[in-house]
Design a protein that fits this description.
The chain is mainly alpha-helical and 175 residues long. It is built from seven helices and no strands. Helix 6 packs antiparallel against helix 7. The chain is flat and about 50 Å long. The mean pLDDT is 81.
Length: 175
């Protein structure tokens, strides 16, 4: 990224760390401040409802470590921070998880992300056609992964609907 060109690595990581703290903390605050409204809006629009439901379930089960580890994912991070806010995760648990996760994200993005962007720019300067083909190949791979993931989820959902679970309350009753 040109914005960090010429910056010492620690300074770039520090700025990225501040950015992620503000973004993720803001997402948490949005969820916390508007718990009912956010849930209704997401359910109505449906766009992020599955991610939020999954994030809520994982947070309720595992707590703050999920928040920290979510910074190593793409797409799940925002849902986890929003869900942590909606669930009103206590700040004494959320803030340390935010700091640890944000530090991991800023360091990885600062080292790997900026290096990758610089490598792509250098490759494009040397051979623009090869760089474009490489970017298209990566995009095609990501699309294939997304299609396969959606198919697997659909199959899993059909299978889950076909099997009727025995709930603890029903276990003692015979039909």
């Amino acid at each position: 990224m040109e914005i960090f060109e010429g910056w010492p690595l620690p300074a770039a990581i520090g700025v990225l760390f501040l950015i992620v703290l503000l973004r993720a903390g803001g997402t948490y605050a949005l969820g916390r401040g508007s718990r009912a409204g956010v849930k209704r809006l997401i359910e109505r629009r449906g766009r992020m409802a599955p991610q939020l439901a999954r994030a809520e379930a994982v947070i309720e089960r595992f707590g703050a470590p999920v928040v920290a580890l979510s910074f190593l994912t793409v797409g799940f991070q925002t849902a986890v921070n929003l869900a942590a806010g909606v669930l009103r995760m206590p700040l004494v648990k959320y803030i340390p998880a935010l700091v640890v996760g944000g530090a991991m994200w800023a360091t990885l993005y600062g080292i790997l992300g900026l290096a990758t962007v610089n490598a792509i720019i250098q490759a494009a300067q040397r051979d623009p056609v090869a760089a474009l083909l490489s970017v298209l190949a990566v995009a095609a791979l990501l699309v294939l992964i997304e299609v396969a993931t959606r198919k697997a989820r659909a199959i899993s959902a059909r299978h889950a609907d076909a099997v009727e679970p025995i709930l603890p309350d029903d276990a003692g009753r015979a039909e």
